[in-house]
């Protein structure tokens, strides 16, 4: 194990080196924000990957462009292209992998400036995806470059990846990289996902997700004689009533011991994403009893809940309604299942980066977990890399908002912490 305090020997040199390349780092970030890598549908992914890859190549990385071949979402119109760079140290292991996703959600309404102009005002860099999470990509790439320019040679190996589709599950991004062996326990020792953690927090994992669709079926009849039909919408209304008045109050009593932030998300929850049924809202209506209705649900579950229990709870509610009404017919489709993940707070990666956060800010970082999921699920579940965290600049509650911004000073601070963490984990000598 590399000595935890090796970075103290190089701290002043690293801090100074990061500050010297600050303008270059922020210029890189501005240019990256100006590429509208919007998901959906997956616009400009090739341009985003090539922009990151060009810088990695210039900084000495062996660079690879990895298309998610074989996946339906990887189309000629919107190719899913990831980029990965490898910077060999004196030896291949240990290997520290920095990952950041460069897809961003649509800008939406409410902006007071161009969401892709990357303006800087009063120390804030504005733009869609700057906090979530292009600032993290800039910080990690320039953190390692600052080590090199400070004349320090790492013993171990660094990898940097820019991945796609995190906002829609990450299946063509980090999941694909892990399945193809680019990230895995046989080559990767530590993974830092550079999601926004307010720069002074370390995120250890996230809650579980169960997205599912329920369709209820009825029997069509004339709307003036509904007694001859069976309304699928009425059936869905019965289920929605039980969710709202039965399940939700029960979930509100289940609280995890995991430090999820914000604290209100430490409880189990369910959200109704959408409801549909009957005739289309647009166009001419005809008098018919609806023979089909449906809804999509987002159930967030805790480490203390098993997925089998979570799923079983939904089926029990449906079966109870069917027992009361034999005409109640339904179908359940699982859309996405993500199990909770939580990295050991006493592992080397967490204690090392926590020490470096404390060195810079004078206080221990808050160890948290995310209310939503991010690509740690794929690193842990597919890649089997146990030591994986999220750490990066950016303000978490800025994610997806109009006028999204990141503090420039936070990008600089994160780069300092990432650089010293790399030195601690990988070992170093003067070049």
From TrEMBL:
Keyword field contains Zinc: yes
The keyword Hydrolase is assigned to this record: yes
A GO molecular-function annotation: succinyl-diaminopimelate desuccinylase activity
Entry cofactors: Co(2+); Zn(2+)
E.C. code: 3.5.1.18
Enzyme kind, highest EC tier: hydrolase
Assigned keywords, A-Z: Cobalt, Hydrolase, Metal-binding, Zinc
Database matches in InterPro entries: ArgE/DapE, Bact_exopeptidase_dim_dom, Peptidase_M20, Peptidase_M20_dimer, Peptidase_M20A
Domain Peptidase M20 dimerisation: 205-324
PANTHER family assigned to the protein according to its UniProt record, in alphabetical order: ACETYLORNITHINE DEACETYLASE, ARGE_DAPE-RELATED DEACYLASE
Record family assignment: Belongs to the peptidase M20A family.
Protein name from the UniProt record: Succinyl-diaminopimelate desuccinylase
């Amino acid at each position: 194990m590399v000595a935890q305090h090796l970075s103290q020997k190089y701290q002043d040199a690293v801090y100074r080196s990061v500050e010297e390349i600050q303008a270059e780092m922020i210029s890189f970030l501005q240019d990256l924000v100006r590429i509208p890598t919007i998901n959906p549908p997956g616009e400009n992914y090739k341009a985003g990957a090539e922009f990151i890859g060009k810088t990695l190549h210039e900084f000495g990385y062996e660079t690879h462009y990895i298309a998610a071949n074989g996946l339906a979402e990887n189309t000629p119109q919107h190719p899913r292209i990831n980029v990965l760079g490898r910077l060999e140290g004196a030896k291949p292991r240990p290997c520290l992998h920095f990952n950041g996703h460069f897809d961003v959600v649509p800008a939406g309404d409410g902006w007071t400036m161009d969401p892709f102009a990357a303006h800087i005002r009063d120390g804030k860099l504005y733009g869609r995806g700057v906090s979530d999470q292009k600032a993290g990509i800039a910080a990690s790439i320039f953190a390692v470059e600052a080590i090199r320019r400070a004349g320090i040679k790492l013993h171990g190996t660094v990898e940097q990846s820019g991945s796609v589709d995190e906002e829609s599950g990450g299946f063509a991004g980090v999941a694909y990289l892990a399945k193809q062996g680019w990230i895995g326990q046989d080559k990767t020792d530590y993974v830092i996902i550079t999601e926004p953690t307010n720069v002074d927090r370390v995120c250890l994992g996230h809650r579980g997700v169960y997205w599912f669709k329920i369709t209820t079926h009825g029997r069509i009849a004339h709307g003036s004689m509904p007694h001859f039909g069976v309304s699928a919408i009425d059936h869905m209304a019965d289920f929605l009533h039980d969710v709202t008045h039965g399940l939700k109050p029960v979930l509100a009593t289940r609280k995890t011991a995991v430090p999820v932030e914000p604290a209100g998300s430490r409880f189990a929850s369910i959200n109704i994403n959408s409801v549909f049924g009957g005739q289309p809202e647009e166009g001419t209506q005809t008098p018919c009893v609806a023979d089909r209705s449906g809804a999509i649900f987002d159930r967030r579950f805790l480490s203390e809940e098993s997925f089998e229990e979570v799923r079983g709870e939904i089926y029990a509610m449906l079966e109870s309604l069917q027992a009361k009404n034999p005409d109640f017919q339904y179908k359940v489709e699982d859309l996405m299942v993500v199990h909770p993940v939580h990295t050991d707070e006493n592992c080397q990666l967490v204690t090392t980066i926590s020490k470096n956060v404390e060195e810079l800010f004078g206080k221990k970082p808050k160890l948290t977990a995310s209310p939503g999921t991010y690509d740690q699920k794929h690193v842990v579940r597919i890649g089997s890399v146990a030591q994986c965290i999220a750490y990066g600049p950016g303000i978490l509650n800025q994610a997806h908002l109009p006028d999204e911004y990141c503090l420039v000073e936070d990008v600089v601070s994160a780069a300092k912490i990432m650089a010293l963490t790399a030195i601690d984990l990988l070992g170093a000598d003067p070049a």
